[in-house]
């Protein structure tokens, strides 16, 4: 097994989609990886990934690919974690390091701890980068440039594995930060998972106002398009994220409902002054956020 602190000999990517494909492209581009084996279900997607030079070989069989892996990246939807880690555990070499890209981290850790004989070599990660597209074809090497990648190591995490996974994500040009998994899931519930649910809900609410004669979407313009862009994301992926972070997400739905209830009350009482204050506070917070972080979005 060839592995140093600064590069990976054999990388196995389970799930060669937008994220897995983009990591493989970025690491090849950076010269951080020797060969890449892709594992997935769709032959068409894997053939395309090989044609595009994202992976060097592919197989449908996790155990076959992982047998001589130096690093394994799990980049499948959260709902597939249990099956994937159970398979991985059967063949993972003792020294191999595992990381992932999943959007919720407590679930990733609990699945890894359930299946891996040595879960200290699993270093959970979540790149805060993406698009509403799926599949290898949609992947690109620059996806992670200057974007955060949040690692959520546990107190049992192996230091050498953490250093290698940090170096790997840095080689994708991510800005790597660490926090605990619960904090991660709570923050992401509010700034990522809630907005996706709100976008799905808004489109459904508008859709249901239509009838045979009237299509409300025909009057929608740029504002509606901006607000609802993420409602074009993969329904399966978002089902899995929502279910795997359901407690934090429920609390955030309560917070949004309370905000909407307050706005409704202001409307009903015709309280323009309060509405103005509420809109102005939101505008201020968003403008400040863009000023501080807009460059890297
Ligand atoms: P994607 O749909 O583009 O790719 C997922 C790939 O996993 C597909 O090729 C699919 O065939 C494969 N797959 C599914 N089940 C499998 C299984 N049992 N075994 C092997 N392969 C399987 O999705 P993506 O956007 O690349 O998301 C991958 C992971 O990254 C998800 O956990 C998601 O939550 C997370 N993530 C996504 C984004 C984003 O914006 N898209 C951002 C950060 C993290």
Account of the protein in words:
With 297 residues, the chain is an alpha/beta fold. Helix 4 (81-91) packs parallel to helix 5 and helix 7 (181-207) packs across helix 10. It is built from eleven helices and ten strands. It has helices spanning 18-29, 43-51, 62-66, 81-91, 105-115, 159-171, 181-207, 222-228, 235-244, 246-268, 272-293, and strands at 3-4, 7-14, 33-39, 57-59, 71-74, 97-100, 122-123, 125-127, 148-151, 175-178. Strands 1, 2, 3, 4, 5, 6 and 7 form a seven-stranded mixed beta sheet that branches. It has a three-stranded mixed beta sheet with strand order 8-9-10, covered by helices on one side. Helix 5 (105-115) links the parallel strand 6 (97-100) and strand 7 (122-123). The radius of gyration is 21 Å and the shape is elongated. The structure holds nicotinamide-adenine-dinucleotide (NAD). Nicotinamide-adenine-dinucleotide is lined by residues 14-20, 39-42, 45, 75-78, 80, 83-84, 101-103, 126-127, 130, 134-135, 234, 237, 241.
């Amino acid at each position: 097994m060839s592995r140093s602190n600064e590069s990976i000999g054999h990388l196995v990517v389970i799930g060669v989609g937008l994220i897995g494909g983009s990591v493989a492209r970025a690491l090849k581009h950076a010269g951080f990886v020797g060969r890449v084996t892709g594992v997935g279900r769709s032959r068409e997607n894997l053939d395309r990934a090989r044609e595009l030079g994202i992976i060097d070989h592919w197989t449908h069989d996790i155990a076959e690919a992982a047998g001589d892996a130096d690093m394994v990246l799990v980049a499948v939807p959260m709902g597939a974690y249990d099956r994937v880690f159970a398979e991985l555990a059967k063949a993972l070499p003792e020294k191999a390091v595992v990381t992932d890209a999943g959007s919720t981290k407590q679930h990733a850790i609990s699945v890894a701890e359930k299946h891996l004989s040595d879960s200290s070599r699993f270093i959970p990660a979540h790149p805060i980068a993406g698009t509403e597209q799926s599949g290898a074809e949609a992947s690109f090497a620059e996806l992670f440039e200057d974007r955060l990648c949040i690692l959520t190591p546990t107190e049992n995490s192996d230091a050498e594995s953490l250093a290698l996974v940090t170096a790997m994500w840095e080689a994708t040009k991510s800005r790597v930060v660490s926090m605990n998994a619960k904090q991660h899931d709570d923050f992401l519930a509010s700034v990522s998972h809630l907005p996706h649910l709100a976008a799905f809900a808004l489109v459904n609410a508008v859709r249901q106002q239509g009838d045979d004669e009237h299509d409300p979407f025909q009057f929608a313009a740029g504002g509606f398009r901006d607000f609802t862009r993420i409602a074009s994301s993969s329904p399966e992926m978002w089902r899995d994220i929502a279910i795997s972070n359901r407690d934090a997400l429920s609390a955030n739905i309560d917070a949004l409902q309370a905000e909407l209830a307050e706005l409704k009350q202001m409307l009903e009482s015709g309280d323009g002054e309060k509405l103005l204050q509420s809109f102005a506070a939101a505008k201020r917070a968003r403008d400040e956020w863009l000023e501080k972080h807009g460059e890297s979005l």
